[in-house]
Inverse folding.
């Protein structure tokens, strides 16, 4: 029998025919038609007040209020992320005292509505004017009369309770072998968390944190409960009250919210891609080349080649 006869024939290429789904295209076309009809009707509806919308969309007061909203969002998220990380580490600590400190905080701030918390922060100045430490008295008037910082503090502490659970889930996703390897290298518990666990947990923590950031931006509209009205929603409603036109100013606020959240979503996408490096199953061309070189230089490959030459 010849060598050509013993050589197996290459299988024929599979000709895959994609399955057709006409119902999907029909349903999509119906949705597009209804969407166009809605927008066409909205553009012709005088109740939306499109001239007022165009007039106040880039108004200086609205733009300044958008900056205030962004500032509250960023500062509150910084407080939430830092304090939430500390609370998550304390909750997972082997020390029962540290665990008992974190649990009541999470219970209170996750168990009460954020609007109720903001109302309480607004009334805090009527409850406390100063704190007596025994050896000194700390005046709280400067802090408790600033609605901006009360808004930042109220939203930040509420966010910390949720960020603690997000960070805890990210830490729990790290394999136990990583912790054991760190202990074998002589690392303590705090160093293991800082050097080994938290960097690997970021891949799990980043996506929900991005969602929390976008949610925080929208939650800033509730700080009118303090009351703080210099943010985007409060300022828009002030202008609407003077014009007796709430609808176009609500559209102005919604447009700014959509614009800011769109930018944040793009940033979240690239941040997720950054922390997903090394976790993807698809090998790059450089990784494939390195793998091919390693297989060519492996002892198994050398032995196989030698046996082939001897044959």
């Amino acid at each position: 029998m010849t060598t050509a006869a013993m050589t197996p024939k290459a299988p024929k290429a599979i000709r895959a025919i994609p399955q057709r789904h006409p119902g999907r295209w029909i349903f999509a076309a119906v949705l597009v038609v209804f969407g166009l009809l809605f927008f066409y009707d909205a553009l012709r509806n005088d109740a939306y007040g499109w001239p007022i919308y165009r007039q106040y969309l880039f108004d200086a007061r609205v733009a300044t209020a958008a900056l205030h909203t962004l500032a509250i969002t960023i500062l509150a998220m910084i407080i939430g992320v830092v304090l939430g990380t500390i609370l998550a580490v304390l909750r997972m600590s082997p020390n029962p005292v540290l665990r008992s400190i974190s649990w009541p905080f999470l219970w209170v701030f996750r168990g009460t509505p954020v609007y109720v918390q903001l109302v309480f922060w607004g009334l805090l100045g009527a409850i406390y004017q100063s704190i007596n430490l025994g050896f000194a008295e700390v005046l709280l008037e400067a802090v408790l009369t600033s609605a901006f910082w009360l808004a930042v503090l109220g939203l930040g502490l509420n966010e910390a309770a949720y960020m603690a659970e997000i960070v805890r889930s990210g830490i729990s996703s790290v394999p136990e072998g990583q912790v054991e390897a760190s202990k074998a290298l002589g690392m303590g518990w705090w160093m293991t968390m800082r050097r080994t666990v938290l960097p690997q947990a970021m891949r799990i923590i980043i996506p929900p944190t991005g969602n929390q950031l976008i949610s925080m931006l929208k939650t800033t509209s509730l700080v009118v409960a303090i009351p703080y009205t210099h943010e985007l929603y409060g300022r828009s409603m002030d202008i609407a009250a003077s014009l007796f036109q709430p609808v176009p100013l609500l559209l102005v606020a919604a447009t700014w919210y959509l614009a800011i959240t769109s930018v944040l979503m793009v940033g979240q996408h690239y941040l997720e891609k950054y922390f997903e490096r090394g976790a993807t199953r698809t090998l790059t061309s450089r990784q494939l080349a390195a793998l091919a070189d390693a297989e060519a230089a492996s002892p198994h490959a050398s032995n196989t080649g030698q046996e082939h030459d001897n044959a």
